[in-house]
Amino acid sequence: MKSLSLLFSIALFTASCAVNASMLDRTGTVRYVPIEGGFYGIVCDDGKNYDPANLPTEFQQDNLKVRFTGKILKDRVGFHMWGEIIEIEDISRSE
Question: Does an H or E element contain 8, and which?
Fold first, then answer.
């Protein structure tokens, strides 16, 4: 019984580490990408592209500087094939 409890604790800890590993806290620029019917993505200051699944309408402005937190959706597949798909947790304008 003790070993089962220990195995469960290890599995839970490992799963929580995997979730934290995919969290983002970045700054970048919203860009309109005119492929696949057009969409808004975020080009981060480090050059990585992110395809937000839930970018709020008020932030869908080309060249808008933003700071955002979110998580990478590893289980989601998109047809844009432009960057990693993310779910925005929090976003604000940045200067």
Answer: helix 2-21
